[in-house]
Every structure is written in C-alpha cells, then in structure tokens.
Design a protein that fits this description.
The complex is a heterodimer.
Chain A (H helix, E strand, L loop, with lengths): L1 E5 L15 H6 L3 H30 L9 H36 L7 H23 L25 H30 L12 H33 L12 H35 L6 H15 L15 H26 L8 H23 L2 H7 L3 H31 L5 H27 L16 H30 L38 H6 L6
Helix pairs in contact in A: 2-3, 2-4, 2-14, 3-4, 3-5, 3-7, 3-12, 4-5, 5-6, 6-7, 6-8, 7-8, 7-10, 7-12, 8-9, 10-12, 10-13, 12-13, 13-14
Chain B lengths: L1 H21 L2 H26 L20 E6 L4 H18 L4 H19 L2
Helix pairs in contact in B: 1-2, 3-4
Classes of the chains: A mainly alpha, B mainly alpha.
C-alpha cells in the first residue's frame, strides 16, 4: 500500500497519532521513524562500546592484571573500536540525516523509503553479527583490532569463526552505508522544495551530501578487502597471505582507502550539526556560508588522497606525497574554524546546552586536529606510531569531536523530534562532567604516548612513567560514565515529566523549525516560501525581508 | 551536477599524479576507480538534464504555488520485506561460517524476500 504525495501540501496531521507498536517499528518506511531508530540503536551500541572502554581502563588503571585475560583484552579493544566507529558514530550521523534532511529541504520523505528501511535493517543485522563475533562465537571472540590486518586476521593466526562473523557484519554495515548514501543524494538533488536552491541548502545537509559521496567512493574497496579476506580464510585463497604469495600491504591500502575517508564520514555530519547550532545561539547568520560549503567539498575530495599516512611505517608507500596531502587537508579544516569563530564573534551568545557541547567540540577537535598535523609529518609519526599518543589524537577528534557533536545534536533536536524539552540544568551537568572527564581521560594518554607506552597492551611495568597518567585516565573514564548515565536520566525524566517544547524553542533558522514538533507524517502541512538560507527565521520575522 | 564532473576529474587527475610520483599500482587503481562513481552520476545527470525543464527547486524566486500539483512520487506506508531480506543475508552468511546446512534456508529466505520486495515496488 502506498500514498501519493503532491507538492507543496502534504498529508494532513492526524489529530491523535496512534502509538506505534512493535510491528509498525519493524515495517515502517517513514524517514523520521527510521532516523529515530538509527539514532536509538546507535546510542545503544555506544553504551555497549562505552562499557567495554570502562573495562579496558579498569584493566590499565595500575600495573598488574585486574579484570581481563590476554585474549579477553584483545577482543574487548577490537569490539570497542569496531562498535564505536562503525556502529555508533557513523550510524548516528546517518540517523540524523535520515530524520533531518527531508525536513531541512522541504521534502515529504526520503526518495526511496523502502530502501531506507532496508539500509536500517542491514545496519542492525550487521551490528548484531559484530557483537556476536565478540561475545557469542565458539572458539573465542575476534581479536584482530578494528583494522583486522592480515596476516593476523588470516585463518592460520585467527582460526575462530568470530573473525568471519566480524567480516560479514561489517560488510552488511557497508551495504547500509551505501544505500543510505544513494538515498540522501537522490533526495537532496531531486526533492527540494521550491526556492530551496543548492546554495540555500542548510549546512548540515551539505555535510551529509559530502559524507554520502565519501561513503560511495570509499566503502566498495573495503568491502572488496573484507570479501578477499573471507575467501583467504574460508576457501583457501592467498590474496593477503604472504606464505601463499599474497601481499598483506594491499589489504592495508584497501582498508585505509576506506579508513581515512571514514574519519571524515564520522566527523562531517557533526561539523554540520555544530554549524547549525552556533549561529542559532550566537544570534547571527553563519559567517561565510559559501566558504564553508567549499571547504567541506575540499575536505571530502582531499580525504580520498591521504589514506597511506596510516602506512608510513610500512616503508613501502610514498611518505612525502601522503604527508603533503595530509598537511593540505588542514587548510579547509582551518577555514571552518574561521567560519565558526567568525559566527560567534560579536554575537549575543547564549550558553544553552547545545551551544556548550558545540564549544566543547571546537576545543577538543582543535587539539585533535593539531596533533593530526603533527602525525602528518612522517618523522614524528615514526616516533609515536602505535603509541598512546595516536590513541589520544584519535579520541580527541572522534570522541571530543564527533561524540560532543552527537550530544549537541541530541539536546538541540530532541525537542523537534519529541515535542518535549530536555532539562537544561541536567544538560549542563552532562556537558561539564563529559568535558572534564574526557580531558582527564585522554590528555594523560598524550603524555604516556610520548613516554613510549604502546597501544593494545594489557599490562605495563612500573617505573616507566606510565602509572600515574594511566590511573588519572581511568578516573576520567569513570567521570565520563557518570555523565553518560546522567544524560540517560535526563532522557528518562523528559519522557516521564514532559515539558512542552513548542515548534521552535531555540529560534532556529532552517526549515525544520517551521513545522510542528514533532512534525506530521509527511513533514509539512504547508511549506513556507523560501527566500534565503534561513527560511524559518524569515517566516518568524517577515518584517526583515532579505 | 557540475560537482560530480569536478569530482571525477579530481580523482582521475589525482590518480595520474599519484602514478607519476609513486609508480604504485594499488593506489592508482583505487583513485581512478574512485573517479568512476561521480562519473556515473555526472553522466546520468547530464543525460537526464538534457531532457528536463528546470525545477522550481532551483529557482531562487520559486514559491510553493509554482510546484502545486507536481507529483513527487509514491510513498509506501509499511513493508516487512527489508527485515526478511536482512534475515536471509544473515542466514546465508552464517552458512559460510557455521556450515552449508544453513545455506538452502538462507538462500530460500533471501530469494523469497527479494521477490516480495521487488513485486511490492510494482504496486
């Protein structure tokens, strides 16, 4: 059964929408339901990945063995990395895109709703397989690290079926990413409301366009790598097995051709998120819309040419080429910082929770970005490769950046999604604890990294200068855990004691703030006239004709 | 759609530069192949654009009334096939891992669900 929708008016809002049951969640094709399911599922994976991180930090709190065996430690960091990267951050961005893009461009739904449902279920099914590979596989969980480099991941050294489940799960997640990318691009290019020209498309949507293109370019080689690895393991192939004439470095090329654009697939949606938030709470339009979009496109294009900076120490890649490309990508990223600071400069800044998380994002990501520039220099990379310096750099970009962006998005758009506010007072506590805990966790890891502590080790000797920083780092992880639990309490309280949000609680600018909270089934009863990149602002301030 | 032409040219051009500097095959093939994706989109868009009049979406003065009555498409209300497709894929994949006894069930479920998914799209 299907509904034909004409523009500009969409289906009327039912007076009392029926409460969705389990079957409707299983069969829905509505972009808001699917987006919501993506976000909730991804957040559930975050809780699992976070619990695993706490286990790792508990083990490393002091020298000696605490809670994990060698094998369990290897499995724990493998599943922690895989879950956080492929099952939490990236899908949360996809979920936000699913929910927000049709609202931001004035479309009634995504271009391919059933494909959208298929992409969600591929993600959920793939995620389940990845979890099974860690905890429910006979012969022990997969323990190859999230990169699964051969020959370690070959059948000789990792004979457990867990690694096969891991490969299948990630292949399914890759299919989900490809389907979502196709859907997003088609939706934005063909379903915009009248007047929503490409140069008026909200920045979040622009970032999702670039993210989708990156997904379409970068995931197929990784799927090929996973497929060949599975053939090596199960059918006796030798693509990556040096004993059979294969070349494990080719796997690294294929993997990192995904792996580095993946970093931008993870972060770009949240560049978009904070770029939606900062102008709203600085009470100013975005400074340099065009420059921001061009910088995003430049980041997307350049990110495809930097993959082998992860392979400097292999000795078989052209280090100067990849160094130069990596230094270059810092330029458009710097342009974005210029945009964000320029937007806040002279604004009447209101430090509500979404803005606090956005500022936290800027501070953390700046540290992550600057240390990334250091790592782009091959001589420095040789010194700190595979050390905790690298772990800290990565977490400053991914957790300090993307995860703070996720919390900013939750506090900003939760009122739009549900019609209810989250508690500002609790939200501020969540921010302060998360910001403090995050820096307490990861700043000491720069220190131990520079002192030479390698990553992926279950224990360390005393007297090397590792003890105190590791203890501080573990305490920081505990503080972050409290912050996350507090955010869950905030969500729970908001459901129990509802504070109505109204349609536009923040004074937003983009089109989603021009419809009801939550929006009706096909998003708009009437699409307003779009005269600028700030249609909701224009609607609420008709006296300020652009 | 110029965006996709530019991207295709950038990736292919970068592949050529990469080859000239490194003589390394894997990266060259990856970069040139990366150019194929935007090339496909750009080619299709150019073909489709040659037979299409401009949309009110792209008109800066476009108003909702300009598109009144224009059909955006059909929006399905619910479908259970995606769940069964993924169950079929998982079962088929599990056969590779756990043994071929699962393969007939996985392939049958996947085939049944795909046929149902495609047939539903024709309604």
């Amino acid at each position: 059964m299907s509904t034909t929708v004409d523009r500009p008016a969409a289906a009327p809002t039912p007076a009392e929408p029926p409460r969705p049951g389990p079957v409707s969640w299983l069969t829905t094709t509505n972009h808001k339901d699917i987006g919501f399911m993506y976000c909730v599922t991804a957040f559930a994976f975050f809780l699992i990945g976070g619990a695993l991180a706490d286990l790792l930090r508990t083990e490393l709190a002091e020298p000696g063995r605490q809670v994990l065996s060698n094998e369990a430690y290897n499995t724990t960091f493998t599943i922690h990395g895989t879950v956080m990267i492929f099952l939490f951050v990236a899908p949360f961005g996809a979920g936000l895109g699913n929910y927000l893009i049709p609202l931001q461009i004035g479309a009634p739904d995504m271009a391919f709703p059933r494909l959208n449902a298929l992409s969600y279920w591929c993600f959920a099914g793939g995620g389940l397989l990845v979890l099974l590979s860690g905890f429910a596989a006979a012969g022990g969980g997969t323990a190859t690290g999230w990169t699964a480099y051969p020959p370690l991941s070959e059948g000789r050294l990792s004979p457990s079926i867990a690694t096969d489940l891991w490969i299948l799960g990630l292949a399914l997640v890759a299919v989900a990413t490809l389907l979502t990318g196709i859907n997003i691009l088609t939706t934005v290019f063909l379903m915009r409301a009248p007047g929503m020209t490409m140069w008026r498309v909200p920045i979040f949507t622009w970032n999702m366009i670039v993210t989708s293109i990156l997904g379409l370019v970068a995931f197929p080689p990784a799927v090929a790598a996973f497929g060949l690895l599975l053939v090596d393991r199960r059918v006796g192939g030798h693509a990556f097995d040096p004993l059979g004439g294969g070349d494990p470095v080719i796997y690294q090329h294929l993997f990192w051709f995904l792996g580095h654009p993946e970093v931008y697939i993870l972060i770009l949606p949240f560049f978009g998120v904070i770029t939606e938030i900062i102008p709203v709470f600085a009470r100013k339009p975005l400074f340099g819309y065009l420059g921001f979009v061009l910088a995003t496109l430049a980041i997307g294009a350049l990110s495809v040419g930097v993959w082998a900076h992860h392979m400097f120490t292999t000795g078989v890649v052209d280090n100067p080429f990849f160094s130069a490309m990596t230094f270059t990508i810092a330029v458009p990223t710097g342009v974005k910082f210029f945009n964000w600071i320029g937007t806040m400069w002279g604004g009447k800044i209101r430090l509500a929770t979404p803005m606090l998380f956005s500022i936290g994002f800027l501070l953390n990501f700046l540290i992550g970005g600057v240390t990334g520039v250091l790592l782009a220099s091959a001589p420095i990379d040789f010194q700190v490769a595979d050390s905790y310096f690298l772990v800290s750099h990565f977490h400053y970009t991914m957790m300090g950046g993307a995860v703070f962006g996720i919390f900013a998005a939750i506090y900003f758009w939760y009122p739009k999604m549900t019609g209810a506010m989250l508690r500002e007072s609790l939200g501020r506590w969540v921010f302060y604890l998360l910001f403090f805990g995050f820096n307490l966790t990861f700043w000491p890891q720069f220190v131990v990294g520079l002192r030479g502590m390698p990553r992926r080790i279950v224990d360390y000797a005393t007297g090397l200068g590792f003890d105190t920083p590791n203890l501080v780092s573990t305490i920081g992880a505990g503080v972050m855990t409290v912050a996350v639990l507090l955010s869950l309490a905030d969500l729970w309280i908001s459901r129990r004691r509802r504070i109505p949000a109204g349609d536009d609680p923040w004074g937003g600018s983009s089109l989603e703030w021009a419809t009801t909270s939550p929006p009706p089934e096909h998003n708009f009863t009437t699409v307003p006239r779009i005269r600028s990149a700030r249609p909701a602002f224009d609607l609420h301030h008709p006296e300020l004709e652009p | 759609m110029r965006l996709f032409w530019v991207l295709a040219a950038f990736f292919v051009g970068l592949g050529v530069v990469y080859w000239a500097i490194t003589y390394e095959w894997t990266g060259t093939v990856l970069l040139v192949a990366a150019g194929a994706m935007p090339l496909i989109v750009a080619g299709w868009a150019t073909h489709a654009g040659s037979t299409r009049t401009s949309l009110p979406d792209d008109d800066p003065e476009g108003a909702p009334a300009d598109a009144a009555g224009q059909e955006l498409g059909e929006f399905p209300e619910a479908t259970g096939w995606p769940v069964f497709i993924v169950l079929g894929i998982v079962l088929t994949g599990a056969a590779i891992v756990y043994g071929s006894i699962l393969l007939p069930a996985g392939v049958a479920l996947l085939g049944w669900a795909l046929v149902g998914f495609v047939r539903e799209s024709k309604h």
